[in-house]
Amino acid sequence: MQKLNYRSHSLVPYLLLSPTFIVLLLFLYWPSINSVFLSLFKQAPFGRKRIFVGIQNYINLFQDPAYLNSLLRSTLFIIFTITIGLVFSLLLAVILNQNLKGIKFYRVIFFIPYAISPTVAGSLWVFLLNPVAGQVNYLLDLAFNIQVNWLTNSFFAFLAIIIATVWKNMGFNIIFFLAGLQAIPDSVYESAKIDGAGAITIFKDITIPLLSPTTFYLIIMNIIFSVFESFGIVDIMTQGGPADSTNIVIYKLYREMFINFRPGIAAAQSVILLALVIIVTIFHFKYGANNVHYQ
Amino acid sequence: MFDLNRGPYSIYKKIALHLVLIIISFIVLMPIIFGISVSMQPRAQIFSYPPSFLPDRLYFDNYIKAWNLVSLDKILVNSILASSVVMLGKLGLGVLSGYAFSHFEFKYKKFLFFAVLFTLMLPMQVRVVPLFEFISRLGLGNSFSGLVLPFLASATTTFLMRQHFLTIPKSIMESAQIDGCGPFRFLFQILLPLSGANLAGLAVVNFLVMWNAYLWPLIIINDDQKKLAQQGVKMLFASSSERDWGIIMAGTIMVVIPTLIVFLLAQKFFVKGIATQGIKE
């Protein structure tokens, strides 16, 4: 089999790979390594002078209540967006899995929010949730006679970015749940029915367990999305406020670097995020990769 | 709703299912529908209570105001250019490197392949600080090159092109080699013509990834004339302190229209691209 490869052209593969590797080395590997390097230095704002401080930046970070708060907020944000997002997506995927004429049309509609950018998603939701002209508050007032200050109250601002993130990422989750549902053979359901199982029992005891590889994969992907992709949503909707309630790690990192101009501390935060991504990925390959089948 | 036998259904059940789907579709699209509705309402109507769910008449002043407020003509052109260059770069480099991994045997092949895939763990957000310093030191801050260079190669595109090239039967290459077809002619005259659908799918996904990118453009571009579409959304908020929702929504809708057009034209490729890769940058 190997004989069929272009073996005699010994330089050609390196030639083919070189443009890709130039980009990857210069703009992906080098900055990542540099993050670790920068995180060991202290640098005055706009200053060229760097002082080696070892792991002091990390020690400062983990003693800083604002950073610990940001970590806690991010963890809660991840847990809530994933739980709410996956439950909704699974229910919608089950509905979209029906063998109905025109179902493809609905599927396309449900995927639309996923194609939209976080920035636009944030903008649309800021309008919907604004207390003066937004329809959500009007409907809440009509139905329950309550007025919510969505973006000026810590709790509701946090809820607002969760809602926007869940809405935006739902399409991605639905695509995978649909693929997972379609991979379950009809015969499994038929034999369960013959055994007298009801719809809810079948869903709980057959569908959900058989989907667990998909769910596992989606949890991993959503951890990474919620951490990184929500930057645009937060920047448009809340800018980390009020009172740092939506100041999740990625937004805090951005502010540290580009508003407070503290590259050392910002680089240390990047390295912590990098460690998180690597841990999640290793976890994924160790426990999930072999069980996940799609397409 | 939880009927898992997936049809065939009675006519009543069909109608009920359609009703449920229509209601949910409306809820899913609600932010976009209300955004469009408000963008066509004059200020007085927007701030009247109760809020109107539909505009009284067709009213496009907000679109003209938003267009001029953030010079959308320039911003949209910038975004189209940047997204096209990034898309072409990723496809070009992805085809070449994918071909190297699928059809050649060479030293360190496994290691180099791993080195490509490893970059999936290095999202923009974790390297933005040193990358910004690096690009600035190269003198490319606030420039188009500085904007697009870091995006030109991608592990996903390389990986997916390799996977696709591997599916092309070995017998084709065998006969090409016997006929004395060199590696580059084989790529351009035989492999690429067999890759239309895959290239189209990757083109759509890569175009949208750059169109929707926000953090890097926000950091590297600070000249208003050079900004991209997503920054335009932020500018709409910044330049209307009284929150003129009609203008903000009109601008937002204009930024999202190209996304929707590309998505709807190519949604088959898009969904297939997502489902087969499952990796987003």
TrEMBL record, chain A:
Every ABC transmembrane type-1 domain range: 67-284
Gene Ontology terms describing biological process: transmembrane transport
Xref: InterPro entries: MetI-like, MetI-like_sf, UgpAE/MalFG_permease
Spans traversing the lipid bilayer: 12-30, 76-96, 108-128, 148-167, 265-285
PROSITE patterns (alphabetical): ABC_TM1
Membrane disposition: Multi-pass membrane protein
One annotated Gene Ontology cellular component of this protein: plasma membrane
Keyword annotations: Cell inner membrane, Cell membrane, Membrane, Transmembrane, Transmembrane helix, Transport
UniProt subcellular location: Cell inner membrane; Cell membrane
Main location as per UniProt: membrane
Family, similarity comment: Belongs to the binding-protein-dependent transport system permease family.
Subunit composition and interactions: The complex is composed of two ATP-binding proteins (UgpC), two transmembrane proteins (UgpA and UgpE) and a solute-binding protein (UgpB).
Name the UniProt record assigns to this protein: sn-glycerol-3-phosphate transport system permease protein UgpA
Native source organism of the sequence: Halanaerobium congolense
Automatic annotation (TrEMBL), chain B:
SUPFAM superfamilies from the UniProt entry: MetI-like
ABC transmembrane type-1 domain ranges (all copies): 76-266
Presence of the UniProt keyword Metal-binding in the record: no
Membrane topology: Multi-pass membrane protein
Predominant place of localization: membrane
Keywords tagged on the record: Cell membrane, Membrane, Transmembrane, Transmembrane helix, Transport
Gene3D superfamilies: MetI-like
Subcellular location: Cell membrane
Pfam family, one: BPD_transp_1
Residue stretches spanning the membrane: 15-38, 75-99, 111-132, 144-165, 245-266
GO biological process: transmembrane transport
GO terms for cellular component: plasma membrane
Recorded family membership: Belongs to the binding-protein-dependent transport system permease family.
Name this protein carries in UniProt: Carbohydrate ABC transporter membrane protein 2 (CUT1 family)
Organism annotation: Halanaerobium congolense
